[in-house]
Amino acid sequence: VSPESGHDEL
Amino acid sequence: MNIFRISADLLHLASFFILIFKMKATKSCKGISFKTQLMYTLVFTCRYLDLFHVLGMMITFNFAHITGLTLYNTFMKILFLAASYYIVYLMRTELKSTSDDARDTFVLWHILAPCAVLALIFNAQFTILEILWTFSIYLEAVAVMPQLMLLIETGEADSLSSHYMFAVGGYRALYLVNWVYRYATEPYYSNWIAWIAGFVQTALFGDFFYYYFVKIMSGDAALKLPT
User: Fold this and answer.
1) B94 against B188, higher pLDDT
2) Which residues on B lie below 8 Å from A8 (Cβ)?
3) Closest residue, chain A, to B130 (C-alpha)
4) Which of A6, B105, B157, B203 is 20 to 30 Å from the Cα of B144, by its Cα?
5) ipTM score here?
6) Shortest Cα distance from A7 to chain B (angstroms)?
């Protein structure tokens, strides 16, 4: 799972 | 990752450098709303809390899920946080004497309270991280209000301020294009919360863009708003 809590945008 | 997204992030990054350059070059923060800059630090602080998770994984050499995109995002998040806090720091220390607080009259809880309530109701997941992320999305959409009010009250903006506003307003417009592109080319769920907020955010810059292009066409130095 992406470590960015599901949000891959800034 | 697509060209629209990359150019959006670079335009956003440019907006920080334009503002910092302007403040350093003119040694003044006249015409810049402290409240809007403060809101931006709150937006990035609430949105980039996952930084701790990513940095935690990096210092424990757990690179399993660290992709190139994660590295890019992490680098940009740190830049955005550092730049926005630096701007607020500058406005409250070195350039405090030139601050426009007297005319920066927007009442902040008029945007903070509705965004907080909306984030508690309309969110993708009822978790702390997700609610804060959603709050940051809603808040960013309206964070420019104090700056717009100040601009209207001033009646005009010098060219650097207008380029700053163009960059800040334009980046989210490019994100809207990025979302359309991703929706058309990837199995990408369109995050309707970010969509609607991004649309509102861009729309708020609408009349500013109009006067900005009029200024560019007429070759004026300063941006003129109808008083």
Assistant:
1) B94
2) 69, 73
3) A5
4) A6
5) 0.85
6) 9
